[in-house]
Amino acid sequence: MPVITVREALRQALHEVMEDQSVFIIGEDIGHYGSTYGVTAGFLEQYGPDRIRDAPIAEAGIVGLAIGAAMVGMRPIAEIMSVNFSLLAFDQLFNHAAKIYSMFGGQMQVPMVLRTTNGWTQLSATHSQSFDSMFAYMPGLKVVAPATPYDMKGLLKASVADPDPVVFIEHTLMYTVKGEVPEEEYSVPIGRSNIVREGRHVTVVTYSRMVHLSLQAAEILAKEGIEVEIVDLRTLRPLDMSLSIESFKKTNRGVVVTEDWQSFGTSAEIAARLYEYGFDHLDAPIARVNFKEVPMPYSKNLELQTVVTVDRIVHAIRSVLK
What span, in angstroms and rounded, lies between the C-alpha atoms of 82 and 96? Predict the structure, then answer.
């Protein structure tokens, strides 16, 4: 099976869905520049300006146009180069994309995908944010955040085929991550979690880039005889907790690792469901590993004190095992 990067997996997925003439891509710098992270490089030459549409710096317009096109039968993919800029399109996403199906009594659907990125590398406070929980809070939206090239390709194809609006969240530090991706046709169902490492002592529930840091932490702890089971949620809405709860019932201890702030974030919802459905199996309080509760500093040393690290995950796992 070929080993490719996340970037190439996304490119393959986009090429395959572009075989459907109703699919087009719109966003800032996606055409001549090939997008900020190189995912759509060469697409303008192959598909032309009618289907690869460079947009001005107007996120509300990009998302609004995509919603309108989806309502009349197209399947647009709107790219917002950074999730921080999606704030400018929250009215379109929350009051239109998420609501149209319900408000029109099911007579109108919005089959669009919003591709955007989380990430931080000395980008400072307003460019290093995570809005995962805000997207996932909204009924009517589906929220996907894959961790591997296999899931990136399979879930992006499933997102484009889905009849509902999907927010597809990539991570800027993951485009060079490599993994096996089959050459044959496949997709990954939205709303289905996956166990990426089996263990018997503690359950780690996570998604996106934190899957890779959790795997690194598990390798360190394995040398001490600690077996960590890791559940990759893959999708935040719908949120599939079935594997996480079954794993928690087996290990009796849980750690939730998410790359966002702890208060009112995705880790709070995940931990609450573990308590709700697995309380009788609880042997220790559930630990959470998140950003520190401050705006992201620009200083590299301070930034590294703020973000989630492998060491912090290892410490949290050890704490629930004491």
Answer: 21
